[in-house]
Write a structure and sequence with these properties.
This protein is α/β, with parallel strands linked by helices and about 675 residues long. It contains 25 helices and 23 strands. The protein binds pyridoxal-5'-phosphate.
């Protein structure tokens, strides 16, 4: 089996022309890479792939002089260049290296190769997820996979960057990753893209052995001994080239949902609904014309089982606040995984997280953990009933699947009337209604639980006056911050609005996708936890606790919340411009705070709002935006993602305007309009 390492190199770098042949401590950069590549265990041959451009004759000449085979091919279509080189060399396995990584570590590359071969996968790398320093990148794949990518990849970024097609079509290619178990390496920048990088590498190279490829630990040792060296180039971003080509290319159009549809048919045979969550199920998407199953996510994007890529505006229904595969959270999970997941006793992580919540959430004097938001809201209700020795509760918003809440909605099948009769639904901002209810059932209300905000802004002093009114009646105020927590502000809506409830429920974003929730509140009330029953096998599950600690630490360290607001506001403003441009201002409005906005759609042109929303959703999906009618912003959403979403809106709004003009939008819809799962009574 022939394994060929192919180093891509060209003179025409935009930021640092001629970089691959520039002299680094006495040898051209390319020589550093070739020298390292020749030491990779398992590599039979090292070759260079460059372009046909006259400028790259210099590379060909260097290769000839240094007895390194050189293959020349298309300028921008690097994928075809790779395929050509690999075919000419009769490769069975290919290792992709780049000529701008002079500090490449042969032993890491060897591990990637071994992993590929041993695990019999199609593609293996050390770049996905990002856990190693920038500049140690290597990827290995089978010739068969490279041939498929070459034959089928059409996107500019797939052709220019060779391997995204393999990484993104996970339903077709098996993918393995060699991750680093040493944390905090991702900030290291050892690649050569700019003049500053060159200065950095030159300075580091003075301390490295002259006669052999250095191990990455040797480079780290140099940097740890001379930490100021990092300052030379550490202000630059990773993977700028890839981000740029994504921005430049036309948005991907979604070609097929055939695997999604087939998998749905299969899932429905064993899983009622075909999903675990209504809002993730087929009944919430245009029938047959939507992705139903995802394979993976990265940052603000996800990929479906048909290989389609989407900017994700759903974020797993809001837990994904940092982004998919956030490097800090994933590192914390991996670290904990090495110790264990669930234990027979508590771990210190529980106090570590509880203390953090007490620090940042105004009402939190004590904390208990759960898994779902419903655990936390239900615990709050039971606690309030136990503390006040009263049974009635008032609800406002959505609070989960448990009897005491869902019994107040139209989807109350299975909830006993006796339970339903104790829960009362109240409209947001309606203080009079709350007062009427409290007076109607004097001394019977344990608590009022509400989302402190979703669509509508609380009226001036509403939350403050509500608290005073409830306390006059010895009734507790509970904020359901399952969505607003770790999104509106680190301390939730209560810190944003300056009103401290008695108890509060948190969930979703606190684990960036790991299942964890918390009930927090006044210590005297929380102490009744000792007497009620709130207890579960997985309440102290350690991976989620570790993840949540990493989320909170990152939010305190980095401008996460600010980003959610800024990006959300920019998106909302731009969408408003687009609705105006397309004459849809009366039909589509986004409401809510910038980190989480919800489309409010009015009936128009004889069509119901459900039909209009379904068409909009379908047109956004076609244009590569996973969309449920909300803007669920995450920290990883970037300008490329926003650009993509706005392009999609522009196209979708055009179609919407045309369809509305026919006056028959609803009858022309090629699928049934999506109906809501339930209505709040
Ligand atoms: C405001 C609010 N409260 C509670 C819940 C219930 O959370 P979970 O689905 O995690 O049980 C949700 C879920 O969407 C929610 O949005």
């Amino acid at each position: 089996m022939n394994t060929v390492a192919i180093i891509q190199a060209r003179m025409g770098s935009t930021r640092l022309p001629g970089k691959v042949l520039s002299d680094l401590a006495g040898s051209p950069v390319l020589e550093w890479v070739v020298r390292a590549a020749r030491c990779i265990p398992g590599v039979d041959k090292v070759v260079v792939a460059t372009t046909d451009l006259a400028d790259d004759d210099k590379i060909a000449q260097w290769c000839e002089k240094n007895l390194t085979p050189c293959h020349r091919g298309a300028i921008d279509d690097v994928l075809s260049r790779y395929h050509l080189a690999a075919s000419n060399e009769n490769a069975d396995f290919v290792m992709r290296l780049t000529g701008d990584c002079p500090l490449l570590d042969p032993h890491i590359c060897g591990q990637v190769l071994t992993l590929l071969k041993r695990s019999k996968t199609d593609y293996c790398s050390n770049i996905d997820p990002t856990t190693w320093p920038d500049g140690l990148d290597c990827e290995a794949f089978t010739m068969a996979s490279l041939s498929i990518a070459h034959a089928e990849a059409t996107r500019l970024s797939d052709r220019e960057h060779v391997t995204p097609f393999l990484r993104n079509n996970r339903h077709r290619f098996s993918v393995e990753s060699l991750t680093s178990s040493i944390n905090d390496l991702t900030q290291e920048r050892w690649t050569l893209d700019t003049e500053k990088d060159f200065q950095f590498l030159t300075a580091v190279a003075q301390h490295l052995p002259a006669d052999r490829a250095p191990a990455f630990t040797e480079v780290l040792a140099v940097l740890d001994a001379h930490p100021n060296l990092r300052e030379i180039n550490n202000s630059q971003k990773r993977n700028e080239g890839f981000a740029k080509s994504i921005l430049e290319e036309a948005s991907p159009t979604i070609s097929t949902f055939s695997r999604s549809n087939a998998l749905l048919e299969r899932a429905l045979k064993s899983i009622p609904l075909g999903s675990q969550t209504f809002s993730k199920s087929h009944i919430q998407y245009p029938q047959g014309q939507a992705p139903m199953f995802l394979t993976h996510g990265q940052g603000g994007r996800v990929w479906d089982v048909d290989g389609n890529e989407y900017v994700d505006m759903v974020g797993g229904l809001l837990p994904i606040v940092l982004g998919y595969r956030d490097s800090d959270v994933d590192a914390a999970i991996r670290k904990q995984l090495c110790r264990g997941i669930s234990f027979s006793l508590a771990t210190e992580l529980e106090a570590d997280l509880a203390e953090r919540l007490i620090d940042i959430i105004p009402c939190a004097e004590a904390v208990r953990f759960g898994k779902n938001g419903s655990d936390a809201t239900s615990a709050a209700i039971r606690l309030a009933r136990a503390f006040t020795k009263r049974d009635r509760v008032a609800v406002c918003g959505y609070h989960g699947w448990q009897d005491w809440y869902i019994g107040t909605t139209t989807r109350h099948l299975g909830v006993p009337d006796a339970v339903r009769s104790l829960s009362h639904s109240v409209s947001f901002n309606d203080l009079d209604a709350v007062e009427r209810l409290l007076n109607q059932h004097k001394n019977e209300f344990a608590a009022f639980i509400l989302e402190p905000m979703n669509l509508t802004e609380p009226k001036e002093n509403f939350l403050k006056d509500l608290k005073a009114l409830l306390h006059d009646h010895n009734t507790l105020l509970i904020f359901d911050e399952v969505i607003t927590g770790f999104r509106y502000a680190l301390g939730g809506a209560q810190s944003l609005f300056g009103v401290t409830p008695d108890l509060a429920a948190f969930g979703k974003a606190m684990g960036n996708g790991m299942p964890i929730s918390a009930i927090v509140g006044n210590a005297e009330i929380m102490n009744v936890m000792n007497d009620i029953f709130f207890s579960g096998t997985f309440g102290g599950e350690a991976l989620s606790l570790a993840a949540s600690i990493a989320v909170i630490d990152k939010m305190q360290r980095e401008p996460v919340i600010q980003h959610l607001w800024d990006m959300g506001q920019t998106l909302a403003d731009e969408v408003t411009h687009l609705t105006e441009k397309h004459g849809l201002s009366e039909v589509i409005n986004f409401q809510g705070k910038p980190p989480w906005k919800i489309a409010s759609i009015s009936p128009a042109g004889g069509a119901r709002s459900e039909a209009i929303k379904t068409l909009l959703q379908s047109e956004m999906l076609k244009r590569g935006v996973l969309f449920l009618g909300t803007h669920n912003i995450c920290y990883a959403h970037n300008n490329q993602d926003m650009h993509h979403i706005l392009q999609a809106y522009n196209g979708a709004f055009s179609v919407l305007t045309q369809e509305l003009a026919t006056g028959e939008l609803e009858t022309r819809l090629p699928f049934p309009a999506v109906e809501s799962v339930f209505k709040v009574r």
